[in-house]
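hiii so um. not sure if this is the right channel but i have a protein structure encoded as tokens and i wanna go backwards to a sequence. like what aa goes where. can anyone help
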């Protein structure tokens, strides 16, 4: 839809400038700014960020939830993959948190429709036996820190 809006704006505003004195005509084409057609960044598309954040937490719940894992190195690798696959989500959430109260509140509002899914994922994560088993493992701790934006 954004693409059609940009096309409509270009069509309504794109008239040629006056003819040049040396050639008698011009072939100048109006150029839209490079970012005009680009979708907003994830930190500015809060409904999409809410959806992606919910999916991230569901992935974490799937990795950390039952059955309990005892191979903490394997779990750490899975967590690193989740972090890599969701690097844009982690970065966008960090930007929102640093943007201030208003934007944080708007993200909370965008998350509201996903609250049940987030609560279920959070419960699975907080009750995770894998978390308890692997808490002292250095690789696991590093992977968790990465997901929390601490490394």
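sure thing!! here u go:
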């Amino acid at each position: 839809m954004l693409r059609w809006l940009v096309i409509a704006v270009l069509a309504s505003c794109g008239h040629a400038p006056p003819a040049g004195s040396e050639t008698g005509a011009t072939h100048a084409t109006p150029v839209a700014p490079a970012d005009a057609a680009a979708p907003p960044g994830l930190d500015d598309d809060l409904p999409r960020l809410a959806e992606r954040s919910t999916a991230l937490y569901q992935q974490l719940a799937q990795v950390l939830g039952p059955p309990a894992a005892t191979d903490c190195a394997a779990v750490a690798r899975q967590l690193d993959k989740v972090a890599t696959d969701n690097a844009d989500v982690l970065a966008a959430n960090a930007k929102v948190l640093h943007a201030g109260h208003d934007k944080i509140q708007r993200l909370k509002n965008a998350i509201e429709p996903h609250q049940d899914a987030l609560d279920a994922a959070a419960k699975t994560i907080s009750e995770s036996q894998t978390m308890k088993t692997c808490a002292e493992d250095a690789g696991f701790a590093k992977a968790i820190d990465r997901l929390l934006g601490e490394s």
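oh and The helical segments are 2-13, 46-64, 72-85, 87-99, 101-111, 115-126, 129-134, 138-147.
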